[in-house]
Amino acid sequence: MTVKVSNLEQFLKENTDYIIYEHSVQTLENSEWIMAKTGLEKVIIVSGDKELLERLEGEVVEEGLMICPISHKNRLVLNSIFEWTKPKAFGNKITTIGLGDRLGMASPGHIAAIRDKKAKPVLAQQSIRELTLMDRTIDDIVDAASYAVFQEGYKEGYGADGDHLKEEKDIKRALDAGMTMLTLDCSDHIENTVSKYSTEELEKDYLKLPEEERLVYEKTYLEKSFSLKSFDISLTKEAIMYNVLLYKKALDFTVYVFDEYVQKASQAIDFELSIDETETVTSPSSHFFVANELAKRGVVVNSLAPRFIGEFQKGVDYMGDIKVFEEDFKKHTEIADKFDYKISVHSGSDKFSVFPIVGELTNGLFHLKTAGTNWLEAMRVMAEYEPELYRRMHRYAFDHFPEAQKYYHITPDLSNIPEVEDVTDGQLPDYLNDRNARQVLHVTYGVLLTATNPDGTSQFKQEFFEKMKKREKEYTESLTQHIGKHLELLNIPNH
Ligand SMILES: [Zn+2]
Predict the structure, then answer these.
(1) Which residues pair with 69 in a beta bridge?
(2) Residue 2: pLDDT band by 50, 70, 90 thresholds?
(3) Residues 6+ positions from 472 with CB-CB distance below 8 Å
(4) Is 272 annotated as catalytic?
């Protein structure tokens, strides 16, 4: 049976309150699909035969024509029909950018920024902490990413990252939800106290390990020198003891997760190991030790995130000596090269001063994660277009900053930030250019979006989302520019 594709066109002509997303038009043999917005809600309008429409949920408005909500169930149908709406893995030969979308509204802007670039976006990327804070599920974030690529007609492929996962149950959840990248955060298994040990204490704990195990480590590292491209690594007995005690449990856990989950997953997985959430900077020799142990034990990582020298605080530029960073980063990239994985840079939002170094020293092959900066861009849009709401949110954020700060390592100087009551509407966006104000707004998003009135209703969340939906175009433009600046400075070429 051939379906008249014109019934969709006809419907849109008669129902002018549906605003079409122009890149979303898809035609298959006997069906036609389009994403549209009516009021503040997005829907997919499908013209097709009965069999197809029965698979979807929504309202049949006339024979062969259905208006479908952007629900989870419909997303799965979309995935089965349009392969490119499903997340995928990319392996270690493609540059990837993690573009976490805190609000579920940022992906169209992210896509616009990256679509002409020689890099792939990881559009779904959310840590469990962020999911809990925002009251979202893993399915919600994959839904948002899938619908965003559909809306933008982006067929180049995107990834979905179960970010900073620590527990088996969350790893399982992420894999079940179809995530294609797994970032294992083994910070709970890294023995941070070891960094404060004296030589005697190191020895004492090291000697508790079985002798045969110690002999293997010593045979591997003692009096050996490992050549990297521009430098050599050798570990003293003390360095061996230190690294073994610091990383032993983390390595065991990584091997377990790799064997038990990554290897057995039904989908291809980009496996990333993060050792960055620790108290101490990852030295090149520690990085080498971890990489070498993983390789020895048959673990293939696609990327690895060390903790680099200097500070990568949220939402602001790199803090530290750029020359020192460059020297240190070069060593890390050489280790990653030797073991054939990508260096991953976490907290990569807004680190403009080191982006050219990251791009150059990795030869353009790396993974970089950004997350909260799209929330700050949302606040910028509010500051520009919804000053009244912005003022209330700003006041609340600053009043509640101490409780939010507990969860983040940031050090803003609050003394020079003007009170929101003292500035004009036109000056509000300036807060988003001030590094100290940025940090406060960056970490208070959870506090803001979970704040409730005495009667239990949300204090900002509902109003904020409504206004953001109204400002969808402005938000997309602002992200295109802001993330575009990241990609530009990282020197990612066009296709
Ligand atoms: Zn990290």
Answers:
(1) 43
(2) low
(3) 37, 105, 108
(4) yes
- Whether 5 shows a pLDDT value over 80: the answer reads no
Catalytic residue among 101, 152, 161, 163: 163
User: If you measure from the C-alpha of residue 493 to the centroid of ligand 1, how many angstroms do you get, rounded to a whole number?
Assistant: 26
Q: In the annotation, is 170 catalytic?
A: no
Strands 232-233 and 303-305, sheet pairing:
unpaired
pTM: 0.95
CA separation for the pair 47, 49 (Å, rounded)? 7
Whole-number Å distance, alpha carbon 276 to ligand 1 midpoint, is 5
Mean pLDDT for the stretch of residues 40-67: 96
CA of 371 to the centre of ligand 1 (A): 11
Delimit the domains of the chain by residue range: 6-70, 85-373+485-489, 387-470
Among residues 83, 245, 72, the alpha carbon closest in space to that of 155 is found at 83
Q: How remote is the CA of residue 425 from the centroid of ligand 1, in Å? A: 36
Q: For 342-365, what is the mean pLDDT?
A: 97
Q: Which CATH number fits domain 85-373+485-489: 3.20.20.380, 2.40.50.140, 3.30.70.20, 3.40.50.150?
A: 3.20.20.380
Residue 275 to residue 188: CA distance in whole angstroms: 10
Distance from residue 278's CA to the centre of ligand 1 (Å): 9
User: Ligand 1 centroid vs 495 CA: distance in angstroms?
Assistant: 29
The pair of three-digit structure tokens given for residue 141, joined into one six-digit string: 């974030």
Closest-CA residue to 154 (of 185, 129, 123): 123
Question: Burial letters for 38-64: b for 16+ Cβ neighbours within 10 Å, e otherwise?
Answer: eeeebbbbbbbeeebbeebebeeeeeb
